[in-house]
Write a structure and sequence with these properties.
This protein has helices at residues 17-40, 54-62, 73-83, 142-165, 174-187, 194-205, 207-215, 220-236, 258-261, 267-285, 304-309; strands at 2-5, 11-14, 45-47, 66-68, 108-116, 119-127, 168-170, 246-249, 254-257, 264-266. With 313 residues, the protein is of the alpha+beta class.
């Protein structure tokens, strides 16, 4: 008598060796029936996060279909959105039967495997629902590739912010310098102690252009002074209103029209950074009391100092 345990946690006692082979054959038939359900729906490319047995791969090869195993779930989600397909975790339906609907399938013009550098990649072209693209980065070593990956990610995030906010502002310290000049002039109109707070806030805004200049190994004092002069003229002289687009050109170490040069930043990112910095400063300034808990000192009650305090000496 031989015991055979199936994967579904059902233990069957087999006394005839021929029946054991029949059980194994039935298991193979069940797997083949599931694969046939997918193929009958019209699928010719199957992507899965798990592994695929060699026997199952044979069924796909015989049917002329491509099966790709051990894919990342994040990649499958992107492919499903682009092709109009759906992620299927089980073939069971609400009636308790196994089925696979053609509506689960996505469409693409071509799916092929190509060798790029030392890797074999699956390329999906001409997706149905959404046009999508993949950026393949190549570098001398992993350090360069990681750095390029971060740069591309930052660029895509900047484009995303622009699309969300639908507006841009000139970069290179232009916004901070203009806002600093405006607040300094506004502070002089205040006749209370609020004038000091506004003036200090205006001075703090200059940290951004100063940091940019220092990182470029330039003279921060001279460049920031020129930048402030341009923006002061734009806010006080009507004929020089176009100076409001002036920002820093850190490659040549001078000031320029950053709007014309194409140095722009998303308005949403600029507004949020100023708001968060202001809220953080306000939170710190609200802390006016500090409570400290000192650990009790372990002094000897019979020491000379305690004896004097208690009048025993």
């Amino acid at each position: 008598k031989q015991w055979y345990q199936r994967r579904v946690a059902i233990t069957a006692g087999v006394t005839d060796p021929e029946k054991l082979d029949a059980i194994r054959q039935r298991e193979a038939d069940i797997t083949k029936e599931k694969i046939q359900l997918i193929l009958n729906a019209g699928a010719n490319v199957v992507l899965t996060t798990g592994g695929i047995d060699d026997m199952c791969l044979k069924y796909f090869v015989d049917a002329g279909a491509m099966a790709v195993r051990r894919c990342k779930k994040e990649d499958l989600k992107r492919i499903a959105r682009a092709t109009g397909g759906a992620l299927v975790s089980s073939l069971s339906n609400l009636e308790g039967e196994e089925s696979f609907e053609p509506a689960f399938l996505g469409q693409a013009e071509s799916v092929c495997q190509e060798r790029i550098c030392d890797d074999e990649l699956i390329l999906i072209r001409g997706t149905k629902t959404k046009p999508s693209a993949s950026i393949i980065l190549r570098g001398a070593n992993d350090i360069y590739v990681d750095e390029m990956d971060r740069s591309v990610h930052d660029s895509l995030c900047a484009v995303k912010r622009v699309i969300e906010s639908k507006s841009v502002v000139p970069g290179g310290g232009c916004v901070e310098a203009a806002l600093s000049i405006y607040l300094e002039n506004f502070a002089t109109s205040l006749g209370s102690r609020e004038q000091l707070a506004v003036a200090e806030f205006a001075q703090a805004l200059l940290v951004i252009p100063k940091t940019l200049v220092v990182n470029a190994a330039k003279d921060s004092t001279e460049l920031v002074a020129k930048l402030r002069a341009f923006h002061n003229a734009s806010q006080t002289i009507e004929a020089k209103r176009h100076f409001k687009w002036i920002g820093l050109d850190l490659e040549n170490g001078k000031c320029r029209d950053n709007k014309e040069a194409g140095v722009l930043e998303p308005e949403m990112s600029k507004v949020k950074s100023l708001k968060f910095a202001t809220e953080a400063a306000i939170t710190i300034l609200r802390i006016d009391d500090m409570i400290k808990i000192y650990q009790p000192s372990k002094e000897d009650p019979n020491s000379y100092q305690n004896a004097v305090k208690q009048g025993r000496l």
